[in-house]
Amino acid sequence: MKRLFSLLLVFAVLAGVSCSGTGEKQAEASPTAGSTAEPEAVTPDCAEPTPEPTVTPEPTPRPRPTYPAAPKLGKLIDGPLFEEPIKYFVIDGESSLHYVYDAMGELVCTFSAPDYENIWGSGFFGEYGRPYDFDLHTMQQCEHYEFFEDFAFKLDYREADNDYGWASYLVEIRDADLENPIDLSNRDIEIGYLGSVLHIEGKFLIIKCSYEDMVPGEAGWHIDSEAILIDADGSIVGSVDPDAFGEIQGVFAGKYIIGRRPKEDPDPEDWEPNVYSIYTLGGELVMDNVKPITNSSYCPDDEIWESSVWSADYLTDADGACYNGELEPLATTPEDAATNAMLVKYGPIWTGSELRLYSNGVFYGICDEDWNWLFRIYNPRLASDYNNQRDWEAEHWAHGWDWGDD
Fold first, then answer.
1. CB burial class (10 A; 0-12, 13-18, 19+) of residue 173?
2. Alpha helix stretches (DSSP H) within 30-83
3. Looking at the chain, which terminus has fewer C-beta neighbours within 10 angstroms, N or C?
4. Which residues pair with 229 in a beta bridge?
5. Residue 355 pairs with which residues in a beta bridge?
């Protein structure tokens, strides 16, 4: 019995083990039917979810700036810039350079010349113009002449026994075409620092005057001058007393001396303190209280206007009536009464407001009366560091000139 019970127990244990193994295999081989669940996503512990991108609207684009085109240079109009008698215009460049242009705005010539006082500078000129003592007819540097009335004269500065150590002498006279020279270089004709020359009755009246000859008076400065008369060949023909004319102011029509005297009872608000009259060379009064229409003047020192002299071909009387050089009354005053043909030929030509040389710092050229550019270039003076004072001092040191007590 015990043996049989032991066998039955063994068989029961084996049966249990067998049933357990078969169930595990079936469950592994046959998963639950109909399961549709998605597996859960696994997020690593170190990563954060990426946020949804935010779209920022771009601002309205600004318009791109526009820049002006480069300015046009040269001649800006059709046709010539000016008409005769103007033939050239001259502008100042860097250092001592100067530029000559024609009516079509073409560069004709460049020259170098110092800028001294009493020398015509930049401007509009005719064919024979002489800016900076440069002859535009020959395009060559030329000698310096003083132009007055209908002739030209040349001065020389020499050592002299006076307070200043030098004096000016008349050394040459030429006619209106700068021909037929009268050589006076060996005559020792001193005219002083404030002297002048007048052409009258075919002769030349040489007025000698210096600073020490200026005498103060009630109506201003009186000039205590001397005068001699020379012939067309340069020979001295006599002396003239300037006091016979009050004071010599100039020449009228090449025939008469313009004299001036102070007014007896001048109005303090009157800008003109003098009375002008015309006289013969012998001192005879011809017309009193006249107003010469000046067409040229010469002043050796711009700061002392009393030393200036005038020339005129027309005048008006106290009533405003106009007279010509023959002292004939005219119905109207000629438009060219104040024009001197010699100065138009050699000097700068005045254009009024119609044309003007102009520089705004950047550009240099010609403008019309409304300030419209007719011709322009970049200002050539901006291209240099030239120093007038520095070079003037260097020239003085080089020549060993006396600097005085300063």
1. buried
2. none
3. C
4. 205, 238
5. 368
| Contact between residue 121 and residue 115 where contact means Cβ atoms under 8 Å apart | yes
Q: How does DSSP assign 270-311, residue by residue? A: -S--EEEEEE-TTS-EEEEEEEEEEEEEE-S-TT-GGG-EEE
pTM: 0.74
What are the backbone angles phi and psi of residue 282, rounded to the nearest 5°?
Answer: -80, 0
The rounded distance, in Å, linking the Cα atoms of 300 and 232 is 23
3-class secondary structure, 381:
helix
Helix/strand/coil (H/E/C) assignment for every residue in 153-189: EEEEEEECCCCCCEEEEEEEEECCCCCCCEECCCCCE
Q: Compute the distance between CA of residue 47 and CA of residue 45 in angstroms, rounded to an integer.
A: 6
Reported residue count of the chain is 406
Distance of CA 301 to the CA centre of its chain: 23
Place of tokens 């520095």: 390
Q: What are phi and psi of 77, to 5 degrees?
A: -130, 165
Q: What is the pLDDT of residue 4?
A: 46
Which is higher by pLDDT, 255 or 217? 255
